[in-house]
Amino acid sequence: MMQYVASGLVSGGIYATMAIGIVLIYRASGVINFAHGELATFGTFVVFACWSAGLPLPLALLIGLLVGAVASPCIEAFVLSGLRRRTHLTEVMATVALFLALNGLTLAVFGEETHEFPALVTGPPIEAFGLVMSRQSILVLVVVAGLTLIMAAMFRFTRLGAAMRAVSESRESAELAGLPVRRIVWSVWAVAGMAGVLAGVLIAPIVYLNVNMMIDVLTKALAGAVVGGLTSVSGAITAGLLLGVGESLVAGYVSTQLATPFVFLVLVLALVVRPQGLFGSAPKVKL
Question: Which domains can be identified in the chain, with CATH numbers?
Answer without folding.
Answer: 2-273 (1.10.3470)
